[in-house]
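Example 4.3 (complexes with small molecules)
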Amino acid sequence: MDLADLHRPADGALTAMSATSLSRRALLFGRGPKPQQPSIRPPWARPASAFADACTRCGDCVAACPERVLSMDATGRPVFDPASGECSFCGACAESCASGALSKQPSAPPWTWRAVVSERCLGRQGVVCFSCQDACPQQAIVRVPGRLGGLRVDAERCNGCGACVGVCPAAAVRFECAAEASS
Ligand code: SF4
Ligand code: SF4
Ligand code: SF4
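Answer. The structure with iron/sulfur cluster bound is encoded below.
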């Protein structure tokens, strides 16, 4: 489908039967660079340097993940790719880790990553798209008032599950640590 196929109602906003069904090429006219995704270690990972030292690169956490959202990076250590799916925070990865690189503590949050909607959001260009909002189990994605307001993430509600990332047809959602996401 081409952008010319989109319907423009009286209020001027573009709509589509399903924005996610549009080709990425047709929709990647968004402003701003495509978000670069930082390396995200599995939930309950120790701080970066301690994790790098402790991880034996065994791959047990990757094999244990029922959601298949972990993979090994170029260094042979595991990373979470939110574009591949949603982390359910089941803890299977941490439970499988014998080295202590991942250590699930009952009172500790799994991580401080939070989603952020970038300037590429189709809503900022007048296209109605609810893909990320529909996917969010925390109801953390809200529409900014105004026809070209787009969407934003409430960092207080977001738990960093990643469900909103892969469903975005404009690759507009990136991950940041909580302090950056709430600023
Ligand atoms: S908590 Fe569960 S779903 Fe999330 S990365 Fe670990 S094993 Fe996978
Ligand atoms: S199970 Fe632990 S030691 Fe093995 S790759 Fe995963 S994080 Fe590293
Ligand atoms: S990462 Fe945050 S905003 Fe995205 S679906 Fe999960 S809870 Fe919702």
